[in-house]
Queue: 2 jobs
Job 1
Amino acid sequence: MAALVRSLLSGAVLSGAPLLYATLSELISQRAGIVNLGLEGVMLVGAVSGFVAASHTGSAVVAVVVAALAGGVFNLLFAYLVLARRANQLATGLALMFGGVGLSALIGVRYVGSQIAGLPELRVPILAGIPVLGPALFAHDALVYAVVPLAVLIWWVLRSTRWGLTVRAVGENPVAAFAAGRDPHVLQYQALFVAGLLGGLAGAHLSLGVARTWSEWMTAGRGFIAVALVIFARWHPLRAVGGALLFGGAISLQLSMQARGVPISPFLLDMLPYLLSLAVLAVGRGRHRHAAPGSLGRVFQGTP
Amino acid sequence: MPDTVALRHPRAEALARLLGLVAFALAVFAAVLLVFGKDPLRAYLDVLAATLGSAYGLSETIVKMIPLVLTALAVAIPGRIWLINVGGEGQLFIGALAATGAALHLAFLPGWLLPVVMAAAGVLGGGLWAAASGVLHARGWVSETISTLLLNYVAVLLVNFAVFGPWRDPEGVNYPQTAELVPAAILPALGTTRVHLGLVFALAALVLWALVMRRTRWGLEVRAIGGNAEAARRAGIPIGRYVVALMFLGGGMAGLAGMAEVSAIQGRLRPSLSPGYGYSGFLIAWMARGHPVGIVAAAFGLAVITAGGDILQMTQALPGSVVNILMAVMLFVVLGREGARR
């Protein structure tokens, strides 16, 4: 029993971490008023560039930095289209997803199936010795440890810093922010770049920390689950932590049931995260609507 | 200035714009191929020769066009009232699943009736799958964009479940697929080609949709909602009902595409049913802006690109999904232009 709890919890944390990076990415975009359905593509670009960098340099640090930057730059393409060209956000996001799928397949074509050491496991001294909880929580890679403090940091930045407050103001009401002397587009570009960095990290953790290999379309819809998680978390970074852990738990449960040979088709178990996403959105209906940024999905077009 | 307006022929202008767009996208994709050390000119010539260079190639391109017209309709029909249906892929899979179910369990039906029943099952399956998202949206629970996207994954998994589990062909040994469908379940083909009756379904659906939009009260109300939803609501048009109905119709078209693929192309249900027809349909509908003639033209273009993916895989050792880059660039150009003009 203890072994089961440990493997479930450990798996939930490991699978939840990339989801949390992705959710934080989407959360920052949406707080700035932009829905980014292209996160899936950003994650794929981050995953493949991190993997390629790791196989060439052997350095996990370089790989993670490359992945984040690749995600950030790729997301700037989205920013240019929705901000400067005023393209439809939802459709452009999907186009970005297509682009990410194709580009990552092209970059990664010679790396399919190859294995790498990936991110090294760092056991926290003393804490990792706690029975059951210790190995489940304190025997992971650095990106897992970094993600919850990062969520707290983002919560603090959005709540208490000048930049965070201005980004939120732009997401709520860009005209008012403009009247107060801010350029909404500049702030949205910045927010989308940061979101891209986080999306790249989400992908890097998938390819370097979880799978340790590269395969085409390895994100398998996690970018879209993250969009659902943002709504579930009502646009709050700390609630996103709980949400990501819940979904990580669903993925981990499905994996451990398969490993134990539970006589349910693996394909039915694989549906769990997607159905859970729909269920939490449907159950939380209405409650989240007033929590949404006021100008979500619209783009500032200059003052009338 | 009425004179200048009269001088600009709208059709010619639209055509020139479309060609410019395609040229730009092809140039960007060529640059990407160059960066990765491939010869883009060779790649384009290979694709052109294999798709348009022979009667066989052309017929195979039309075969790919059939599901694309239907999945484009799956996006364009709900898109008429600004619903974003990104679930064409999932609806196609569910349509295929339902049609296969009908073929496996009603194999005793006569040859003229079985395909009709299968088509109805396909439309119903894909339609209900999409209508579920419509209900979630109409109730204000979940955005149709998110729910259709998430349901794509569920639909593909359901088909996998069926072909790996209860419907698995015991004689298929290592292949996950159902048993071959009875001959009565196969849609007739044109001459010696693989072009099948689905082409008639697709074109008829397109014409019917255009007529309903222009000639009926129902179409008028849909156009009213598309023009100004708030005004339509105040005029007493039940918007929620239209949301569900249009999602059903759209999903039904994708389901029909799934049925046609199973019945005419595969002859059985396989998980490798679609190379992303549902997603390509989304691009086609946006490029054509829902216009019927535009849908046919864009579907033909995308059929060339889809076939191109297979060809590049064989001749250039490129992953088939690189054509997604070309699709993305095309979408970027269309969307960027449309937004800038607003």
Job 2
Amino acid sequence: MRYVAEYRDPEWARRLAEQIARVVTRPWTLMEVCGGQTHSILRHGIDAMLPAEITLIHGPGCPVCVTPVGLIDAALQIAARPEVLFCSFGDMLRVPGTHGDLLSAKAAGADVRMVYSPLDAVSLAMRHPDRQVVFFGVGFETTAPATALAVVQAAARGLSNFSLLVSHVRVPPAMEALLSMADCRVQGFLAAGHVCTVMGTAEYESIAAKYRVPIVVTGFEPVDLLQGILRCVRQLEGGRHVVENEYPRAVCDSGNEPAQRWMREVFRVVSREWRGMGEIPDSGLGLAQAYARFDAAQRFGMGTEWTPMATECQSGMVLQGQMRPTQCPAFGTRCSPEHPLGATMVSSEGACAAYHRYRRPKVTS
Amino acid sequence: MCLAVPGRILGIQGEESLWRTGRVDFGGVIKEVSLACVPDAQPGEYVIVHAGVAISRLDQEEASRMLESLRSIDGLSEPGGEGA
């Protein structure tokens, strides 16, 4: 596919890795923020191409993974109602709540469907005027414009049978929360390319300056990731800490302004609980007052207080970059993609799922 | 979750930005996507699509510039790989 194949060229990837090895003089720890990048790194073996000085740790960049269990329990309660047609992205349907996941609710008779786009949920509401269609809106800033458009379209069509259980989160406050932790090891960030496609790069300037940390906006293909790492390492070696854009074919400084307008129309910034990280101020999006009638939690009388679930799952440590998935005692034994203890093993972008799928056996020579 | 893929716009339907959609070719797979966030996109252009919505027009000049910059890195000459 054009604009994909060029950036997967193994020869260029190898040469970029050699360039990184020539530039690096001491150990550096970088975090890629986005789960899509984590998967690409493991899938293409990029971590194994890097010199020993570079450690990559995986950030909380999987919105499915950071959705609190309490919200999934609320989704399960709503989905179980006889008048409800509940839909979301495929990953979201397999995340375990306190008692099962949405797919098991479907097996028990609930009308739960997988959709590719929030706009498909609006189409479902039009085709099923006798059902209450609820979309579980989850995602970073990349996905928020699609959810916002669905709400605006539902309002424009006068749909009274469409609502939204909102779990949208914002990346920059989570990066600040990580950097504020006493034991934070992150020295440089690869910022999530498609989040920046929507939001631009301005939000990261103050973070780079305040925490004296280089932030390189990075794409998802091997050549993009290695370029991002190279530029981050060059900054670290040179004692610099600015925002750089490695992904200009998809990201401009101001982001996508029409998309931001749809988001501002529909959402307001709220505090949100992240699984494994607790409540982070200003890190979420909730429905603006003008669209509050589309709030599924209100429509179906769900509370807003969620109780954390006691579990063996240590995804919180993984999401903070404090622990590798393979260091978890349950990894690959009591926890697998078929029988996940937590969301990081379920989601196609979860770090545990990536290690489970792509981990390479250790070779001793 | 933030997976987004580039595709080429084959044709456009609708006038008002909220309802404007395009038929987009993703290497042979054709899907209808919302163009509400890329009001200036035209047939023949590449857009980056996420969850049924085009979130960016792909900047083809920047794409070529990056490949050029790779060629100029010290010791990094043209490889013979696919699509390069």
